[in-house]
Amino acid sequence: MPRYKKAESEQNKQEARRRLLAAALDEFAAQGYASANINRISQAAGFAQGTIYGIPVSGMAADGWLVSHRTGPDWLSGGMFGAEASVVAIALCSLCTLALLVVAMKRHSFVPPCWRRHG
Q: Which terminus of the chain is more exposed, N or C, with fewer CB under 10 A?
């Protein structure tokens, strides 16, 4: 990497760190430690939560400030694709889908596709 790129990258990191710390201090001052919320901090700093937590999303690596290390088999942790690819997430989403399908069937609220509608 050229030297100017490395220096520019370091400046960006320092600026990002400054924004994050300022947002966190504002949140703690306004809400107190017990009521502070990482969602509000990330929004105020202008970051996605994956940037803060360092969680890979859909296979994209994320170098965050709070680095987590997933352990266990890939099928359980989601592996390199993140938690959304884990068996737990897929099972919960499938159960919610089934529950919504049951409700829709009980209410008779399915709309047939356009090629099956008469009229």
A: C
